[in-house]
Design a protein that fits this description.
With 68 residues, the chain is α+β, with helices and mostly antiparallel strands. It is 26% helix and 25% strand. It has one domain: Ribosomal protein L30/L7 (Ribosomal Protein L30, Chain: A), CATH 3.30.1390. It is globular and about 40 Å long. Keywords: Ribonucleoprotein, Ribosomal protein.
C-alpha cells in the first residue's frame, strides 16, 4: 500500500505585495512567520492548514504565486 507521506510534499510559494507599515503587530509577525520581510520577496513553504491560515490572515499583503 502507498503511504500518503511518500513522494514530494505539496508546497505553496507566496510573494509579499504589501507593506506591513501601519499594520497590527500580529500581521507583521505573521509575515515574518511566513519568511517574508520585504515587498516582492518570495517564500516557498509546505502546504499545510496552518500555513494556509497564515496566508488567509494577511491575504491583503501577499499573493500565492505557485502551488505545486
Amino acid at each position: 500500500m502507498a503511504n500518503k507521506s511518500e513522494g514530494a510534499a505539496k508546497t505553496v510559494t507566496v510573494e509579499q505585495t504589501g507593506s506591513p507599515i501601519r499594520r497590527p503587530a500580529e500581521q507583521r509577525a505573521t509575515l515574518i512567520g511566513l519568511g517574508l520581510n520585504r515587498i516582492r520577496r518570495r517564500s516557498t513553504l509546505q502546504d499545510t492548514p496552518a500555513v494556509r491560515g497564515m496566508i488567509a490572515k494577511v491575504a491583503h499583503l501577499v499573493r500565492v504565486v505557485d502551488e505545486a
